[in-house]
Amino acid sequence: MRITDIKATTVTVPLEAPLLHSNGAHWGRFVRTIVEVETDEGIVGLGEMGGGGASAEEAFRGLKEYLVGHNPFELEALRFKICNPTASLYNNRTQLMAAIEFACLDIMGKKLGVPVYDILGGKLRDEVPFASYLFFRLENEKTGDGEVRTVHQLVRHAADLKRKYGFTTHKLKGGVFRPEYELECYRALADAFPNDRLRYDPNAALSVEDAIRFGKAIEGLKNDYLEDPTWGLNGNRRVKEMVRTPLATNTVVINFEQLATNILNPSIDVILLDTTFWGGIRSCVKAAGVCETFQYSIGVHSSGELGIQLATMLHLGAVLPNFTFAADAHYHQLTDDLIKGGKMEYNEGAIKVPTGPGLGVELDREKLREYSELYRELGGYPYDRDPSRPEWFPLIPNDRWAKTPEASSAESAKERVTL
Ligand SMILES: [Mg+2]
Predict the structure, then answer these.
(1) How far away, in angstroms, is 260 Cα from ligand 1 center?
(2) Rounded CA gap, 80 and 358, in Å?
(3) Which of 143, 217, 239, 265 lies deepest, with the highest CB count within 10 Å?
(4) What separation in Å is there between the alpha carbon of 326 and the centre of ligand 1?
(5) 97 C-alpha to center of ligand 1: Å?
(6) What is the DSSP string of 116-169?
(7) Which CATH number fits domain 121-359: 3.40.50.720, 3.30.70.100, 2.60.40.10, 3.20.20.120?
(8) Residues 339 and 307: beta-carbon distance below 8 Å
(9) What is the spatial distance between Cα 32 and Cα 10, in angstroms, rounded to a whole number?
(10) Catalytically active residues, by annotation
(11) pTM for the complete prediction?
C-alpha cells in the first residue's frame, strides 16, 4: 500500500463560551486542521492538528514529497523522514507528524479491519474516564450566557457538568486571577463536591513561592496533583521539595530528552501525555513504557480536540497500564463535532473507546464543509491574547492578574448554604 495524497482543511467549531487561561483565551471557538491521507487502495486515514489557516495547510501540502509513495505501515521510517531529531533543529514538525501518524494508524486499522488499540497492543479498558475541566469563561457574545468568574458561577458550572456528564474529578484551569482568589475557588469546589477528586492547573503562571503557598494550602484536600504550578523543571523541583501533593506537567516533560532528565533529577511526578505534543500515539505509548519502568504515573492531556483527536486520546488511554488518573478533554465545552453521529457521549464521566476499524470515527462531510466555511468567515484568533483585556499580556511568573470579581465572597457563602 502506498500513500498517494494528503489534504488539509482548516475548520472552526464554536465553544459554549470563551475560555480564559494564563496566556490569553480561546475566543469562543477552536481552530483545528483536519488531515486526510489517501492511499492507492482507496483507504483514507484521518488526522487532526491544533491551529490552522493557510500556513498550516501549506505545511501539510509541503510534506507531500515525503509522503507520496510511502507505505503507511512503515511509521518508524516516516518518523525519521519527517522528524529526524537533528534535522528538526531547523524544521520542527512534531505536531505535523502526529496528525499524519494518526491518519496512518487509521489506514492500518481500516486495512486490517481492527481498531487502533489492537495495533497498539490491545485495550485494557473499554472506556476512558475524564475530568470536568473547569475554565473561567467570558460570556458568549451572542447569547450572553456562559460566564464563569465568581465562586458561585464556578461551583454552579461544575455542578451542571457533573449532573450532565457524571464527572467525579474536577480540574480547575487557573492562572487567570490572583492565586488567593483561585485558592478560594478551589476550596469552594472541595466543599461542594466532598467525594470528588480535584486538580489545579495555572499553566505555570505562579512564582515558585506562590506555587508553594498554594500547594501547602490545599494539602489535606482530595488532590490528584498540582499541574504545572510554576514554570520549568528547576522551578517545579523547588516546589516539589516543599509541597507533599504530587506535581504533574504537560509543558516541561513533552519529549524523551526531558523525560530522561526528569527521571535522573526528579521534578515532576505525573507525566501528562499529549498525542500531538509528543508526535503521535505511538510516542506516547513508548513514553508511558519508560514511565512504567520507573514507576511514574501518567495522564492523558488535552490540547483541545474535535472527535478525531479525541479518538486518539481514547485509544491511548485504552492501552496504557499506568494510566491512573482521569483524562482531560475540552470536548464538553464544544457545541458540536464533525464526526458522523455527532459528539461522542459521556456516561458517568467516561467515554467509550471506539471499536470500529482504525480510529473508529468517520468524517461528516456536511459538517466539514459547514465548519470550514465558518473558519473562512471568522478566521483565526491569537491564543495568547484575551479579548476582554486588549492591552494586557502576562509575565512568567505573572503578577498581572485579571480583576477579582467583587461578588465572590458573599456568593460563595450563599453557595455553601444552598448546595
Ligand atoms: Mg496543563
Answers:
(1) 20
(2) 23
(3) 239
(4) 13
(5) 22
(6) HHHHTT--S-SEEEB---EE-BPPPTTTS---B-SHHHHHHHHHHHHHHH---E
(7) 3.20.20.120
(8) yes
(9) 6
(10) 173, 301
(11) 0.96
CA–CA separation, 15 and 329 (whole Å): 13
| Ligand 1 centre distance from Cα of residue 164 (Å) | 24
* Residues in CB range of 236: below 8 A, 6 or more apart: 228, 229, 230, 247, 249, 252, 267, 268
Q: What are the cell numbers at 317?
A: 488511554
CATH topology agreement for domains 3-117+367-378 and 121-359 = no
Evaluate the CA torsion angle 289, 291, 295, 299 in order and state its sign: negative
pLDDT tens across the length of the chain (419 residues): 999 999 999 999 999 999 999 999 999 999 999 999 999 999 999 999 999 999 999 999 999 999 999 999 999 999 999 999 998 888 899 999 999 999 999 999 999 999 999 999 999 999 999 999 999 999 999 999 999 999 999 999 999 999 999 999 999 999 999 999 999 999 999 999 999 999 999 999 999 999 999 999 999 999 999 999 999 999 999 999 999 999 999 999 999 999 999 999 999 999 999 999 999 999 999 999 999 999 999 999 999 999 999 999 999 999 999 999 999 999 999 999 999 999 999 999 999 999 999 999 999 999 999 999 999 999 999 999 999 999 999 999 999 999 999 865 555 555 554 44
CA of 249 to the centre of ligand 1 (A): 6
Phi, psi for 272 (deg, rounded to 5) = -95, 110
For residue 380, CA distances in Å to 30, 62, 101, 347 come to 9, 21, 25, 33
CATH topology of domain 3-117+367-378: Enolase-like; domain 1 (3.30.390)
Interval between CA 70 and ligand 1 midpoint (Å): 35
Taking the domains of the chain in order of start, what are their residue ranges? 3-117+367-378, 121-359
Task: Give CA–CA dist 312/169, Å, rounded.
Answer: 21
The answer to whether residues 139 and 148 touch, using CB atoms and an 8 Å cutoff, is no
Helices 179-192 and 208-217 pack at an angle, to 10 degrees, of: 20
- Please give the Cα distance from 69 to 4 (Å, whole number): 6
